[in-house]
Amino acid sequence: MSEETDFGFERVSPEEKTRRVKGVFESVAKKYDLMNDLMSGGLHRAWKRFAVEASGVRVGARVLDVAGGTADLARLFAQRVGDRGQVILTDINGAMLTVGRDRMLDEGMLLPAVQCNAEALPFPARSFDCVSIAFGLRNVTRKDVALAEMRRVLKPGGAALVLEFSHVWEPLRPAYDWYTFNVLPRLGRMVADDEASYRYLAESIRMHPDQGALKAMMEEAGFDRVEWFNLAAGVVALHRGYAL
Predict the structure, then answer these.
(1) Mean pLDDT in residue range 214-239
(2) In whole angstroms, what is the distance from residue 43 CA to residue 216 CA?
(3) Which end of the chain is flanked by fewer CB atoms within 10 Å, N or C?
């Protein structure tokens, strides 16, 4: 039997998921930031600031932002590491990366922007003090491979940050499910003219591993001292682990 993976609630081949995810983000790239503000009421900005604070990154550090898209995290990290440090923005999707690169240029940030697959990062082993991925892991075809790559490129003692939608506090689940499966697709239709992509995004949230399962995946990938922080009652969780 051929290997299959999740694309929302569907089971598809890894190649088909990669192709479909590419189409989703090519479709939503130009409205991605606006939709994030609308979907989260602006809270995604606070979640990302929390992740950067939790990284412990200091002036002069080297940071890799994986699947960084429109560069929210990369820009925050750049402010922390200063001129003596380096932040590299990566994304597999050219349309998203173009939006992120242009935003950085508009703000006077000359940061490298590299189009690459999170499952095969084109960087030497042990070359970064911190590696982050925000709201991108659930769209990766082989999550375990991407986590192993993040560990590979980290220096010993370096921090890996995974900021992602997770499993909400159980009493809130009915209301949260109603919101994600009804409001998000309608917002996508009205604002981005793309209901299907936001229906997939809602389904992908439900299919993503919960807090404990993702912790176990990070440990299996070789991370040490893995812990998570629930944000907004578990709507989002930040997982942090360290390379040995």
Answers:
(1) 98
(2) 27
(3) N
* C-alpha–C-alpha distance, residues 38 and 238, integer Å: 21
Pairing of strands 223-231, 236-243: antiparallel
Nearest-CA neighbor of 136 among 106, 112, 116, 110? 116
Summarize the confidence of residues 85-104 as an average pLDDT.
Answer: 97
Structure tokens belonging to residue 106: 């508009």
Q: What's the confidence (pLDDT) of residue 3?
A: 84
Q: Write the DSSP string, 48-110.
A: HHHHHHHTT--TT-EEEEET-TT-HHHHHHHHHH-TTSEEEEEES-HHHHHHHHHHHHHTT--
Model confidence at 1: pLDDT above 80: no
CA angle 136, 112, 138 (to 5 degrees): 5
DSSP secondary structure string for all residues of 109-158: ----EEE--TTS--S-TT-EEEEEEES-GGG-S-HHHHHHHHHHHEEEEE
Identity of the highest mean pLDDT range in 2-11, 29-38, 228-237: 228-237
pLDDT tens profile 58-83 = 999 999 999 999 999 999 999 999 99
